[in-house]
Amino acid sequence: MTVLAWSVVAYLAVSVAIGLFAARRVRGARDFAVAGRRLPLPVVVATVFATWFGAETVLGVSSTFVRDGLPAVAGDPFGASLALVLVALFFAARLYRLNLLTIGDYFRQRYDRRVEVGLSLAIVVGYLGWTAAQFAALGLVFNVVSGGAIPVAEGMALGALVVLVYTLAGGMWSVALTDFFQMIVIVAGMLFIGWTAADLAGGAEAVIASAAASGKLAMPAPASAREALAILAAMAPLALGSIPQQDTFQRVMSARDERTAVRGALVGGLLYLALAAVPMFLAYSALLVDPAATARYLDSDPQLVLPRLVLDHMPLAAQILFFGALLSAIMSSASGALLAPAVAFTENVLRPFARHMGDRQLLWATRASVATFAVVVLAVALGTNATIYEMVEQAYKVTLVAAFVPLVAGLYWKRATTRGAIAAALAGTGVWIACEILVSGALVPPALAGLGASTAGMLVGSWAENARAQGRARAPR
After folding, report:
1. pLDDT tens-digit series, residues 263-286
2. How far apart are alpha carbons 16 and 160 in whole angstroms?
3. Which residues touch 199 (CB under 8 Å, ≥6 apart)?
4. Which pLDDT belongs to residue 370?
5. At what angle do helices 225-239 and 446-474 cross, to 10 degrees?
6. 39: helix, coil or strand?
7. How many CA atoms are closer than 13 Å to the CA of 266, on its beta-carbon side?
8. Cβ–Cβ < 8 Å for 62, 307
9. Paired residues of 39 in beta bridges
10. Range list of H helices, 384-417
11. Positive or negative, the Cα torsion across 344, 46, 76, 409?
């Protein structure tokens, strides 16, 4: 094997070792799910940042930006960063005070068991695309680093196994501490590679000037209602649909106090927006360094633009740092994306039907769910032809149309009812699916139509239930 390949192996070994070391802190299901709510601010910032800085940021966003400019990446990084800021400003403090294990627990507490189970299942389904994107990226990295010796499919399986080992061992403790280590590698690696790429391209000023001249940095006002709605539809799944997600909830709720939860989400979101600009800068640098090769990869496989730039034009030290940072980004997202749906499924779907489970049994049931979800996601990743960016873009539409309105209404509208929450979830999901199948090219994109239907369902359902309750109260006895 090459020096680069051995460096990747060493990096994987260190990540697993940190995860296994962190596993010693796990004493029960709460430790496994939310690290006992004991994480300090630097670790919360790292793990919130790592929620988003994954395969799509480095490989998907960057190539999409080079092809289509800033308007095409409205969802990620702009929508993703906005989601974390909104969590910090409007959700973190209120949810932290409730001392819950999962977002599904909130739905049970505010509404009832039916809402808890239904929305928890929607949340679990939403993770399929996101986690599959991380596995696909791991397969791509192993294939590139090994010079094609490891096929992409086998690389996916190998990457999934590595992430699964330390996630199974320590849950949120392993995720948090490996995220902290991996964030350091991401920041150092991305900044060093950015500096190296700028040098190859004739300076940062030359890269920025060229991108501006080609119109990639322009954010023109929408020329029509259709364009405006398309931009909103691109932003909404990540900006709003990711808020009622278990991984976001889990990372914020793992903080040691309410103030840390709020500040961790805010700083993590702003840090993500700043660092997400680096891969976009790198990808555009590739156009100046090697225009012919970059154009060829944009046509055939855009996800290879950055890896080929680094392998073909940068020294070994830069290659090691880049792939270390890339693996850090992918593994940190993948570990959280495995843990979150498993915790939600075990706590909010399985446990209601197995109330006899003690804490130790719940812990092992959660671990079994992690392993099962990993197998299912790996099958999805192997069976899809979608790009990494497309998989991520689709992942949060489910929670946008089903869970966002019940969460917001439950926190901020006293008259929200169980019937309203059920109507919101059913109407939002039904309209979204129907529009995707029948009128995907309509003026109002399917995701926004689903969000509107969900809002209407909450209003009408809650009004009907409140009116019925008032009628009963007024009826003579």
Report:
1. 999 999 999 999 999 999 999 999
2. 12
3. none
4. 92
5. 70
6. strand
7. 12
8. no
9. 255
10. 388-395, 397-402, 404-412
11. positive
- In eight-state DSSP terms, residue 43 is H
Going by the DSSP 8-state scheme, the letter that residue 274 receives in this structure is: H
Q: If DSSP codes are grouped into helix, strand and coil, which group holds residue 255?
A: strand
Taking the C-alpha atoms of residue 268 and residue 100, their distance in angstroms, rounded to an integer, is 22
CATH of 3-396, one of 1.20.1730.10, 3.40.50.10470, 3.40.50.970, 2.40.160.60: 1.20.1730.10
**Distance of alpha carbon 364 from alpha carbon 23, whole angstroms:** 14
Take residue 221 and report the two structure tokens written for it. Answer: 């006002």
pLDDT over 70 percentage in the chain: 97
Which residues belong to CATH 1.20.1730.10 in the chain? 3-396
**Separation CA 159–CA 395 (nearest Å):** 20
Q: 432 Cβ partners below 8 Å, 6+ apart? A: 397, 401, 446, 447, 449, 450, 453
Average pLDDT over residues 307-312: 90
Output helix, strand, coil percentages for the chain, rounded to the nearest 5.
Answer: 85, 0, 15
What pTM does this model have?
0.88
